[in-house]
Structures are given as structure tokens and as C-alpha cells.
Amino acid sequence: MLRGRRFALVEDDEFMGSAIEQRLRLEGAEVVWLKQAVRALPAIRTPRAPIDAVICDIRLPDGSGEEIYGALCRTHAPPPFLFITGQGDIDQAVRLLRAGAQDYMTKPFEMRTFLDRLSHLLRARPNDPFEPLGVSRVAEETARRCAEFAAQDCPVLIRGAGGTGKVRLAQRLHDLSDRAYAPFISLTRSAEDQTTVNVSDLETAIERAGEGTLYLMKVEALNQEAQAVLLVRLGDGFRLIASCGPGFSPETSPFRADLFSRLASAEIVLPPLAEHPDDALWLAQRIFQAVNARRAVPLRGLSALAEAAILAHDWPGNGRELRTRLVRAVGAATGEWLFPADLFPERVAEGETLAPLADIREAAERRHILLALEQANGHAGEAARLLGISRTTLWEKMQKLGI
């Protein structure tokens, strides 16, 4: 749950701050440690990359966490806040909860409890499990299968390359199920051995999941001992969701066939983004809106050229690459609009030849016409109405563009 997340840590105490930072990094999270209120406020208000949550001490040497939270609320909706407080600051913490903050913890606290509360805070963010996964038929089918398997109670295997959204889909399966009230525990690799999950970590994760969901990332990396334990404990009350790479098969790896058969009884395949480019643009627009809202001076939007470039790129890193490029581009952009050079600066550095403007426009027109026809179920008259053109004009454009 914490892997890949980005946190702002506002804490002046060296011992406390160092302990939290080290543990979050061990969990795979990115941490921006800020020790003064004067530096924390601008860093949270206009971050270089989106911040998923803020961990903030109430008492700081040059101000207070309450002042930081209040200042952020006056300008825009702040990210979720988890306040850290001493016994004497509990009344202030309660006041902050009434003002909209998400949670607080009283010192001293167990690190495991802190991680669980932080994970719960992230899950509690507004997240509609029924929201679309995209606009393509691939996305619609994925959403349908997700809803179908969520209503069942069998293990689910999510297959896909890196960056295709396996963790997000696992969370969606949990949120749509009857176990949504219970914990969602994500287990990746052990701290001692980054290539697999050891038995101790697996046992602990199963206990923490209780009657909830255990998500096992890269299940193909489980060693034989862990596979045996997992097979025995599958009936212990938790639900298992696992993910693997696109080419995983017990025939080509030392993986137990009996365990694989249990996992593969319900399988969802997430294809690479290159196979459904319309979802790349849909996702880019959503990411852009979220990242752009954190800028001191927001951009006007994605240019038509940027949209065409997004559709043309093959996205070997899938959604993760798309997000990384957009976050970097929005943070570094100097104009009013985002252009291909902002998203793909390496192409400019390498002197790559740009496509003619006419080709870009034709590609954009072709995409919009195809989308309109899909929404109109193939009826040209309705598609023309959606596009705001006459049926004759639509017919001429379809002939010209080879549709």
C-alpha cells in the first residue's frame, strides 16, 4: 500500500524524523523530510511531484502544524494529513480533525501501528470503486471482470507487465467485495531478501489481513517454502489476490502446479498501454489535472500536439512511465500549454525529426471520429451530431482518413 507513494514528513525531532523516514523508505515509499514550517508550506503547496499524504508534527520550532494545515486549506484542498502529537496537544489535534484533517497519533507509538494508520488514511481518500478504468473496450471488459470476481470469494490472479495498474486493480477488487470493511494488506518482498518474500513476512501479513485481503505482488518470486505455507493457509479466512508478469507459467518456473491452479481459477489480464492508446490519453488527462492543480500558476492544458504524441508513443513503461513523464513535464513547463517537447525532451536532445503538423491533425481527427462512431454504435448521423458537423462532411472526412 505504501510502495511508490510520496510523503511529506514535517518533523523537527531528528530521532523521530529519522526513524519514520527510514521505515517509509524501507516500505518502498518516497519521503520529503521538512524540518521547519517556513519550508514545509511552499513544498506542500507547490510540490515538484504530487504528495499522497503529509505526516506532520503539531509543534515545530518556527510555527505549528495547525498553521500549515490552515494556510493550505485557504488556497486549495490539501493532501491527507496525519498529525503527530504529544499528550499535551490532544485537544489541538481533535480541533484539527474537526477542521478536516484525517487522523492523529500520540507519541510514543509503535511503528507497525503507524504504518497501518497511514495505509488506512490512504485507503480512506475519496476513491469510487465504480469509476471507469478507461474509455476503451479493454477497460470496459477489465471493469466487468473485476466486478464479477469481486462478488466471488476465490483467489484472483492479475497478470500484466510493470506499470499496467495491477496494484490499483487489486485494491478495486477489495473495495468492491464484501471484505471492503477489513484490512487490505500488500506484500512485496522482504527487507532482507529483495528477490522474494520470506516465510516470516508471509505469516505476519496473513495474520494482519485477518478476514480481509492479502495482495501478493510478483507471486512468481515466492520460494518453495513460502509456496507451501501459502497453499496450506489459503483456507484461513483471508482472500488472496496475487499478481505476476505476463509470461509467468508453472511450466517454465519452479512454481507448484497445485498452488497455481488455485490462483488461476479467476484471472484478469492487463494488456500493455500500447494496445489501447485511447486509455493512454484518458489517463494522461486525469493525471495532468491532478498534477496541474498543485502548480502555483496552472497550465491551460495539454496541447493537441501533446495529445497526438501521447497516442503515438508505445509506452514501454505503461501507466507508470506516463505518470512519471507528466509529473516531470508539468513541473518543468514554462509556457501556457504542455507540448511534446515537454513530455519527450530526449527526442529534442537527440534531434529526432518531428512529424508534419498536417499528419498530427489528421491523426487527431481520425481518433475523434472513431470515438464518436463508437459512442454512436456505428450510426453516422448520430456521430455527426456528436462531432458538430453535417453527415456529408463526416462522410467526406471518413473517406479522406480511410475510415
TrEMBL record:
Pfam families per record: AAA_lid_14, HTH_8, Response_reg, Sigma54_activ_2
Entry-annotated residues carrying 4-aspartylphosphate: 57
MF GO annotations: ATP binding; sequence-specific DNA binding
Key words of the record: Activator, ATP-binding, Cytoplasm, DNA-binding, Nucleotide-binding, Phosphoprotein, Repressor, Transcription, Transcription regulation, Two-component regulatory system
Domain Response regulatory: 6-122
BP GO terms, sorted: phosphorelay signal transduction system; regulation of DNA-templated transcription
Subcellular location(s) per record: Cytoplasm
PROSITE patterns: RESPONSE_REGULATORY (PS50110), SIGMA54_INTERACT_4 (PS50045)
Highest taxon above the source species: Bacteria
Domain Sigma-54 factor interaction: 132-331
UniProt GO cellular component terms: cytoplasm
Protein role: Member of the two-component regulatory system NtrB/NtrC, which controls expression of the nitrogen-regulated (ntr) genes in response to nitrogen limitation. Phosphorylated NtrC binds directly to DNA and stimulates the formation of open promoter-sigma54-RNA polymerase complexes.
Descriptive protein name: DNA-binding transcriptional regulator NtrC
